[in-house]
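Methods, example record. To illustrate the input and output format used throughout this study, we show the complete record for Amidase family protein. The sequence lines were provided to the predictor; the line carrying structure tokens was produced by it.
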Amino acid sequence: MTQDNLWQLDAHDIARQTTSGDLRAQDSVGAAIDRMNAVNPDLNAVVVDLSDEAMARAQALDASRDAGTPCGPLHGVPVTIKINVDQKGQATSNGVVALKELIAPDDAPIVRNLQNAGAVVIGRTNTPEFSFRADTDNPLFGRTHNPWGRHISPGGSSGGAGSAVMAGIGALAHGNDIGGSLRFPAAANGAVTVKPGLGRVPAWNPSQSAERGLLAQSMSVQGLITRSARDLHHAMPTMIAPDPRDPFHVPMPWQGRALDGPIKVAFTKNTFGYDLHPEVEAALDTARDALVDAGYKVEDIEPPNVFDCGRDGYRALMGEVYSLMKTDVDAHGSQAIQDIFAVYFQEFPPFLETDLLQIMAKRSHYARQWSLFLEDYPLILTPFLPRPFFKPDRDTEGGEGVHEVLGCAVYSYAMNFLGLPAASVPSRLAHLPQGIQPINIQVVARRWREDMAVDACIAIEDRVGRMCRPLWEHMASS
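The corresponding predicted structure is encoded as:
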């Protein structure tokens, strides 16, 4: 690895070399910043450049190591933070012009945990207005582009994070997920992520003036988008460090006990009437074969009804959004986001009043069904989307556009409603008329067993390879 290519190193490689002294934090961070300066002007993934602060911190980390201070597990690893999470002294704008001066008084738990582990924040990444689209564009910072090309949306709402990490801007990218906002960008860019289960990663924004709605609290989680599945095993244990500001965080170890015998995996291609694209089916078959080769016992069997669970869950979330957020969206959102929300409310008619309370109660019914099923099948291999990832601004094209973007994504938001871990990993590179693009599948795991989902992603990645390599070749030749 030459000095010019240090930006290609994974997080676990950087940490190993900076800890041993084979690499200086200033070198790893400087390489990521150089890469950011080279590719970000075209991508607009990082919208707040923190290069100066990052180099000063890297210098301090090097001095600390030289003085004999033990290194953290992410010593000198360059990372990005999404602009909807508090970082002390920075604006938590959430892509909204009216919030561009909302300066965070302190770090959110996720930022504190990353920095306590030795990570270095090099920039803050873009999100759509109110972080409520599966695409990334806003009037404050503009559109983020996918490094594979302008024919694919970068996903959302952590679209800046997914675009940045796959393009080589930092080894880890922070994101969050209330209905798919880690997994949509992972699928769009060919990255890897695991949406943690409810209570796994502490969360809170010190800048917030009121508590979030109950469904937002129970469906939204913080996580990481990476280029390598193994980086999730390396970095996620730092993310789950306790923080008393989140009273519902559950301080469990990252690694669970090994299960006896071959791990059973339920496998489904059911897309509930939506046409399953041949490239998605091929990606699912490849993932299944990879797991079989790795010693998993994969069986064709349907999990509990994900369609009703997902639709009920998102309609419940829309009910909460309608009651608690609509006023702010109408007052401070662009016309584009107001129009999108109007279609959301058509696609997912909000549960309100007594109906909302009843469906929130029914959440336990759905979760119990899935918990019982996962007793027999600790992992479930599913589609993420029934079709290859959509084009930019597809969700601005009325009901048909929102239906393609979100209406068919029941495997995504059902997992938020259930509070279950769900990983996304690429298993195919599709050559389509509009251009090449990755295809990701989803791996759902038992509650508290994110580690098992990541293990499955590693097995798939070992067979397929990481998508960053063909992407970097594609970027170099474009």
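Annotations derived from this record:
Residues 20 and 363 are 48 Å apart (CA to CA).
Residues 3-477 form a domain with the Amidase signature (AS) enzymes fold (CATH 3.90.1300.10).
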